[in-house]
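Lab notebook page, bench 4
Experiment: in silico fold of construct C2
Operator: M.H.
Input chain length: 278 residues
Purpose: comparison with the prior construct
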Amino acid sequence: MRNLNNDFIPITVLILTKNEEKAIRECIESVKAFSQIIVVDSGSTDKTCLIAEGLGVEIEKFDWNGRYPKKKQSAMSLKSIKHDWVLFLDADERPSAKLVEEIRQKIDSDEARNISAYLIPLEYHFLNKKLRYGHKVKKISLLKRNDAYFPIIDDLHVTNMWEVEGHYQPIVSGRVSCLKGQIIHDDPDSLYDYFARHNRYSDWEAELRSNASMRASVRRARTRQGRIFERIPLKPVAFFLYSFLYKLGWRDGKAGFHYALALSFYYWQISLKTMEKR
């Protein structure tokens, strides 16, 4: 068990895991400056929990019953949480050193007292290369847990449903600001797993486009960028042109090309599955 002292940043880090033994050690090591680290595990059958225990962090088990609340909302409601601010991370994510220092400076400032959540940009790695250009994503990962919640979406009937909330942001009751430091997203799994996740996610996105009430609920919980992009026609082609040409993804070489192409293929899957439903 980690001891609390004034050198630690007063934030609870919630790391979401399931069979993440390849990534969990590096993720935990990256957040050792924070005063509380909780691994929220969904029944891992590998060494994920054993590694986390060896590093002295808390472990909470999450056994999804097929209903709401799902994993993130349940994690925010844990009685063991000691702080108002929580930082969400997947096990294949880690905050950059710049982000950790920025959070340290911000969290007790006058500015933070009037903020309920922070958007954090992601730094993607693909084919073992850091992507400096192309499509960029920001997500609300740092928030005051009493000022935010993940909405209940009518999606439990969707094929291949999973235990974590879908591709949408929490609803925040107060102001949302943006940090400059990045969360590094470096997935150690193979491309097989990458495309398998896209196949599952595209089922959910296709249902979203075919279900008016579900679509309306999710629209409230998406960033401005996400709401604009949702309305773009010919999205697979538009995304490739946007990421690879307009956002200079070509400057990342082969990795930039294949990243733009892979996500374009993902949007093509969504379009095709939506057509199938209709």
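Observations: The mean pLDDT is 92. The CA atoms of residues 21 and 47 lie 5 Å apart.
Next step: discuss at group meeting.
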